[in-house]
Amino acid sequence: MISESSPKKKRWILPALLVGLAGLFLSVSHFTGNEDPQLIKPSDIPIVMGHREGCFLCHQDMTGFAPSHDPKAIGCSSCHLGNPLAAKKEAAHKEMVKVPGNLDTVSATCGQSACHQDLTAKVVDSLMASGQGLVSVNRYVFGQTQSPDGPGHLSHLSDSAADTHLQQLCVTCHLGFPKKISARIDQKSRGGGCTACHIDYTKAATQQMADYHQTQKLPQLHPELNIKVGNERCFGCHSRSARISLNYEGWHETTLKLKKLKNPEDYRILQDRRVLTFKGADVHHEKGMLCIDCHSARDAMGDGNNYNHQGEQVEISCLDCHNKNPGKFVGYNQLDSDSVKILQLRNREDRRNVEYLTTHKTGRPLINMTREPNGPVKFSGKLDHKVRPLNAPIEACTDMGGHERLTCQTCHTQWAPTCIECHTQYLPNKKRKDHYTGEKVQGVWREYKKDFTALQPTLGVRRDKRSGQDIVDTFIPGMILTIGGMQNNHPDSNAPHKKQLNRYQIFRRMFAPTFSHTIQKQSRSCLSCHKDPRVLGLGEGQITYGAARKQTAEIPMTFTPKNRPHPADGLPRDAWTAFLETKTRDTSTRTGSRPFNRQEQHRILLVGQCLSCHADNPRNTSRIYSRFTLALNERTPQCLQALKRQKKGLRQQLLTGKKRVQPNPEDL
Amino acid sequence: MFGSIFKFWNRRLSTFGNLAFAAFLIAVVSGIPLAIGYDVDNPSDSLQLLLLTDAPGVFFRSLHYWSGQLFLLFTFIHVIEHLSEGSERDLKKGLWIRLVLALLFSVFVMLSGFVLKADAEGRMAQQILNGLLKTIPLLGADLQIVILGNSNSLNLVYIHHVITTTLFIGIVIIEHMRRFWPELLSYVYLAGLATTLTVLIPQGLQLTTSAEIRGPWYFIGLQEILHWISNPLLVVGILTSGLMLFILLRWVNPVRSQKTKRFLFAMLIFYGILTINNWGFRDASWNSLFF
Hints:
The complex is a heterodimer. Chain A is of the alpha+beta class. Among the domains of chain A are: 39-96, no CATH class; 241-289, no CATH class; 291-316 and 325-391, no CATH class; 408-667, no CATH class. Chain A has 28 helices and 21 strands. In chain A, strands 8-9-10-11-12 form a 5-stranded antiparallel beta sheet, with no helix packed on it. In chain A, strands 14, 15, 17, 18 and 19 form a 5-stranded mixed beta sheet that branches. A 3-stranded antiparallel beta sheet of chain A has the order 5-7-6. In chain A, strand 1 and strand 2 form a beta hairpin. In chain A, helix 8 crosses helix 9 and helix 24 (598-614) runs antiparallel to helix 25 (618-626). Chain A is globular. By secondary structure, chain B is mainly α. Chain B has 2 domains: 2-205, Cytochrome Bc1 Complex, Chain C, CATH 1.20.810; 219-291, no CATH class. Helices cover 75% and strands 0% of the residues of chain B. Chain B has helices spanning 2-12, 16-37, 43-53, 55-85, 93-116, 120-135, 140-147, 155-177, 184-200, 220-228, 232-248, 254-281. In chain B, 35% of the residues are buried. Chains A and B meet through helix 1 and strand 2 of A and helix 1, helix 2, helix 3, helix 4 and helix 9 of B.
């Protein structure tokens, strides 16, 4: 029989008793360790979000919340998790999240189904979280992939050379980097998911949190969660890389060392000891506009679509505001739910009777660009609600022949941070703290910068992915760099000057399209494009024109670079492309972007030659730009005489061995 | 293979039948204070207040939970033990049918306890049960009213959990064991094991609904089957066929019985694989690592 007892079981009575006693002991300790819950009345524990919130037993005095995140409405556990149904501290705080909003836990906190589920799902895949462009460009530069586009997520990096490089130097800025300590957002803040932008500490709350970190005394003042995203919340991350936060405020990062500064009061010093000098702010900053006044929530947090690079995700463009013929408008009832919610949070519900402008790129509404039915378009600041005038572009911007492909920033960008040469070196024997994991790792990537200057950006051609058209845009040297110290061979076996190249292992000369956020009303001059070799991507130097012949378009030109050639490819160190040559490989960190080709260079320089004398005469410039071939054929004797005078200078250069290039008539 | 394992166990420790009986009695006793404090009209809130204000209540609730889980686990093992020895043939036919029904009731008493939590998991389980019962042709609606009641109230579920199923299971166990109490040793083992689990893994409530919610361990395989087979009637049909096969074991000849047992055991293993796949290898989006 199965249930029959065996005499041998008597031996097991003692162990059985021990098991029973262990259970009894644990039970006793369970009860003795308990606080006195019998004193708690049900009325002490409010019901929030459909359940009892036991957190109030200890934390009922916490203040400082915005209405939408008041614990009386959503409780504490909605954000901080833990167990709101436990009366004991240890049990209540089990699995508590001290810093909610980090993306690794966001699906249970901010992104739970009752709160911001749709929004956080977009954020997790947005570029600020994934850094997809950063990852794919870095892998491309390291020769790991064949394209600067492609999949990649900063939270899922491998241990390849490219990925460890990112892991050590770049990864902390992305939203997925978990914030471990609660603190006010400052210049050194990195990551933290939702709280990277939406946490707002008052002075008192900052002090109380600082005290808590030192004394463990629980703060009574909670930071506010809100959408009042001021520029300081963008600054920590966006003062790096392209440094748009610095540029926007007019600050240029120098390579000066704080310790060696003789007059530090002339500079701005950041918390991380970087030294800045003032170069001129963006006109929008001067007018008091914030980052969020142009950049919508979709720009920042993603719209649910997958983009390779930030430029593709950004939906705002200059023409949305500065346009004689504004885009389409939608009514309040046609707004998407996110836009309505944002309007409610900004107390702009009074705006039910106005129409909202939609963007040219995506047709989605801009909630701070409105008009009364059939009235003029008004722009209002998202935080200060101040209405600012919108100026339409002047005729020269819209009607200038030959310049249809130019973006607004091509002419209106004042300067851009430019680093013409840097070196990244892998030091296998050094150790370094990994930013992401906090652990010490063997092998260190180190960057060595050279000159870092504020210059007008280089111009080049970018393919707009939405329209498929080539447009002229601003570029900076995204990469003129060497990468050394790796064991693997350089992937580009057909590269020129391979002998020298092997010494560096990897050499890249790629420019990146940029919107440097240094816009001014005053545009750059005609000559600053048409006669400046650096702006054309040739590097600093001198263009010299030879004598022209009547009835032909032939004008010989030479270029004398200022900087010595780089041993890896023979181009001047600050150049993007060679003089009157077409560069086809390794041009840019973006697919479809390239420097001006031979034909384009020649056309621009030829026009530059004419502008030397005619730049100040609008009638002449209009003729030159609109019908250049005709203008060439109608040159006056004075014009040809003036060109002849240049011949002497050119001959001198030819005697010293500089390059003379005869233009191809087809280029015209 | 099973025979030697069970023999080894039974010589040294309590039999699984005794352990299951002890677990059942501990579950019944620990359930009494819970049944008294439970508010059927406001079930979730009454349990939440119990968790926050009543430390002994928290203990008894957790003890009730764990003794219940152990009861079901040891009952399953006890059944496998019987079938592996072929001892089901020693049972009278009527008792065999009552035992199989008691086995069904045991699963139901566990499920009804899960539903009575009235938290996110409980509500979801209630919906799934309702949905499954509804699909049964002709009898579905009536069965739903008889088992779960015809409203969202948990009144009937509470009555079945506390009285109907508990009484039936208790009577059948006593009839089967031919004794009112299991041996003392099994009590000591069970009490020790259950209280240890009670204190180390206390039972809370699942407040929020999320994609990661799973049913109780014995229910997860069914969730996985429902994921693969979109027609619930087919699932009900498969389960009923399995049950009929199980009942018929007492009547078929020994050779066929052995084959049927092997088939049922293979199904049990498959159910276990489905359970493991669902439990351990499905992410929040319900994607499986394997299949």
